[in-house]
Amino acid sequence: MREDLGRLDIAELNRRAQQFERTLDAARRRIESRGRKIAWYPYRSLSGLALLEKLLHGENRRLLALAGEAPVLDLGCADGELAFFLESLGLQVHAVDYPETNCNGMEGVRALKEELRSSVEIVGVDLDSQFTLPGHRYGLAFFLGTLYHLKNPYYAMEALAARARYCVLSTRIAAFAADRKTQIRHLPVAYLLREGEANQDWTNYWVFSETGLRLLLERTGWQILEFATFGSEHSDPVSAEGDQRAFCLLKSLPLEREGEIELLHGWHQLEYGSWRWTQRVFAATLPVPARMRPRLVLRFFLPELIIQKLGPVTLSASVDGRALTTERYEQPGEYAYARGLAEVTPGRRVLIEFQLDRALPPDDDDPRERGIIVSSLTIE
């Protein structure tokens, strides 16, 4: 069944989800007919799949192919509509939420599981603590409409990046502050909500600007594969008419690197789960994928401190002893050193060696030799 799911276009997935809503509605009616009163989650969780039709392009439209053979996670599951739908397709699913902030204490998702005779694993987790997810690895996670309800979005995204290879995320964003005059769209910020300020909901905490959300994802170990916004272009963090949502498809860089890259000399410890300093000379081995025109891509940050103290920096590299063209960097900032690898053989591991012409020596503030801050090294 997994092979069939891997060929499903998101449009077909959405069509099946709309049909499955009738199954969910019937299950709710049967539960209520027996006198059980539940304050059901008031929104249609499966409606977000229609927006994924607009978000996804190319191979990404076959969304469930990203899950592979691993379980799927529905994080912030509400009443579990998405989890039960994915299970109906044959996927193994874990549904996770925080009973304290779930609209009915997770009574709804548990009642539906019983009524549907489901095997979805339901777990109550304090998402406002330094939580641990139930599964060891997930091929795909859905994290829809939950991020701005959490006190610690940084920890949540880092914890997810350590467990899920891909993630579909949606959250509220804002182009203006609550006064609807102060523009924050292009600032890397988040608006901190007062209790009940948005939708009279005390569980709303943070509404990021688009720029702030993108930076959060970068700092917590995610690569953005697709990104789209829906709703008000004059959005704000509090009003109903100013509601705007960001939807994105993400790939975990920590899990992508795990088991593929062998770091050799010249690397310092991983920091914040997403980047590490190098020494002046550093090296690694990587497998070459079986694809046309593979490229070596080193993504890194050149700190202002380096430029101020040392001046422009030149980076050189070699692959199995064959030199690549050098690059000179005169300004601090983020860079991608990308070079084609026309002469390498797909399927084998290659030795990549890098050298900077200068680096910060150890000093009283830091005993390490420091060159650049690397966020990812890939052959793609």
Tell me about this structure:
This protein is 22% helix and 29% strand. It is α+β, with helices and mostly antiparallel strands and 380 residues long. The longest helix has 24 residues, at 10-33. Strands 3-2-1-4-5-9-8 form a seven-stranded mixed beta sheet, sandwiched between helices. It has a five-stranded antiparallel beta sheet with strand order 10-12-17-14-15. The protein has two domains: 2-252, Rossmann fold (3-Layer(aba) Sandwich), CATH 3.40.50; 259-379, Galactose-binding domain-like (Jelly Rolls), CATH 2.60.120.260.
Strand content: 25-35%
Return the string of H and E elements.
Answer: HHHEHEHEEHEEEHEEHEEEEHEEEEE
Relative helix content: 10-25%
Q: Give start-end ranges of low-pLDDT stretches.
A: none
The Rg value, from CA coordinates, equals 23 Å
Main beta sheet: strand number and arrangement? Answer: 7 strands, mixed
The helix-and-strand class reads alpha+beta
Cα end-to-end separation: 29 Å
Strand segment tally: 18
CATH architecture of the largest domain: 3-Layer(aba) Sandwich
CATH superfamily of the largest domain: Vaccinia Virus protein VP39
Average pLDDT works out at 91
What is the CATH third-level topology name of the largest domain? Rossmann fold
